[in-house]
Amino acid sequence: MDVRLLLVVNNRDARIAYSKALMQLQVSLESVPSVSELHRVLPYATFSGILLDTSVMNSASGSEKAFIHDLIQIFPSVRLKFDPDTQQISVLYFGQAHDENATLQRFVESQCMGFTPRVIRDCERVELNFNVLLSKKEDFAEAETIKTITMNVSKEGCFVFTPLRWQIGEVAWLKFMELLDPAPIEVEVRWVKEWGKTLGIPGIGVCFREITPEQAAQIKDMVGGAPLSLK
After folding, report:
1. What's the fold here for domain 125-230?
2. Which of 19, 42, 86, 136 is deepest in the core (most CB within 10 A)?
3. pLDDT (tens digit per residue) in 7-54
C-alpha cells in the first residue's frame, strides 16, 4: 500500500534531512513551506499523514494553529524538530510527553500504513455543540440510541462524538434537539476516528442524506467561518 505523506517545513536544511529520512521508508512525500499552502494541496490529493516542523508551528498565527488543530483530529500527525549540529531528527507526538522511542519509522508503520488516505475540502464549519440523539435505527429504538453532542457542524454534515465502533458507509439517524424541527435526519458515516487509536476526540464524521429544507436552512444560518471538511 502506497503511503503518501505531507510535510510542512520552511527551512531548507531541515527539509532535506526529513525528506532523506522519509525516502528511506519508501513513502511518497509532498512538501509545502507554510501552513497557508496546505489549503492549496489538501483539496486535491489524498494523504495518510501530516508532519509539521516545529519552527512552522511556533510561527503560525492563531487561525493557522486552529486549522492545524482541526487537521490533527483527522490525520495521523507529528511534529518534527531538526538539530543542525547533530543532524538528528526528533519526532514529537501532539499532546504527549517526549517519547525517546518515537521515530519516523514507528510513526509511519503504526499510524500511517493502516490509515485510509483522505482528501479534505474547504467548507464553512463551526464548533456547535448540539444535543443530539444518534441511532442506527430510524425508529430510535432505545437499545440502538445514544445521547451525545456534535463537535462541529457544516451545512453538509457534522462530527458527532461517540466512542462506539462504526464503519465507513454505515447509515444512521440524528435528532437535533435544538432545531425547530427535530425530526430524524438520515446521515451516512464518511469517516471514523476510533477511541484509543490516535490523539483526539473519538467520533464519526457524517454527511446529511435526508434533511428537510427547513432543517437545512436553520443549520445554514448557524454555520459560518471555519474551513475544513472531508470529501
Report:
1. Thrombin, subunit H (2.40.10)
2. 42
3. 999 999 999 999 999 999 999 999 999 988 887 788 768 899 999 999
What count of residues does the chain have?
Answer: 231
Fold (CATH) for 4-119: Rossmann fold (3.40.50)
Rounded distance between C-alpha atoms, residue 41 and residue 36, angstroms: 10
160 contact partners, CB below 8 Å, separation of at least 6: 132, 134, 148, 149, 150, 151, 174, 203, 204, 206
> How many C-beta atoms surround the C-beta of residue 98 within 10 A?
9
| Backbone phi and psi for residue 178, each to the nearest 5 degrees, phi listed first | -90, -10
Coil, helix or strand for 27? coil
Residues of the chain with CATH 3.40.50: 4-119
User: Quick one: which of 43, 127, 40, 42 has its CA closest to 77?
Assistant: 42
